[in-house]
Amino acid sequence: MKKQILVGLCLLAAQLTFAQESITLFNGENLDGWINHGEEKWFVEDGELICESGPKGEYGYLSTDKFYKDFELTLEFKQEADGNSGVFIRSTFEGTKVTGWQVEVAPPGKDTGGIYESYGRGWLIKPDPEKDKALKMGEWNTMKIRVEGPEVTSWLNGVEMVHLEDEKIGEGEGAIALQIHDGGGIRVKWRNIELIPLD
């Protein structure tokens, strides 16, 4: 009996330690902890973070004010209208020019979960086309991104989309960012943005 209690206490302690390591990046109330790059619209409504195309329909980004190297990031998104967006890792900004890597968020058939290098090599890896059925357009989706050293893995609604090992990504330093694509007519909602540091 004592052994069972001890094991139970150890498991509880491990769970509490794990919970303490989790960082909430979006507080559901305002954009504290985030930096807006560009003129597109980012605002909070009913506890959700919303991005919308502005009048110019250009690229826009909302980045964390802190850099994160190795982590596991989990978030939920709902695409409305076009829904072309993305989640950037280890990224830096000069205006709306980004240096870093994007885990794609896009309408059906547009490679959600793939990894793209902006202003660089372009597509590094795309998911197998049959995995696209994991995307629920117009509904809430859960994306998980694990970044550790040169390795990046993405999951969409529990389905592993891609795994990539890339030396250049391994050397990257920067923020996490959400993107709104150019072209106009885009609206995406985000919520439950949680990060667990791995370093």
From TrEMBL:
Keywords for this protein: Signal
Q: Does the keyword Signal apply?
A: yes
Signal peptide range: 1-19
Alphabetical list of InterPro entries matching this protein: AL/BT2_dom
Residue span(s) of domain 3-keto-alpha-glucoside-1,2-lyase/3-keto-2-hydroxy-glucal hydratase? 22-195
Q: Answer yes or no on keyword Chaperone.
A: no
Output this protein's name: DUF1080 domain-containing protein
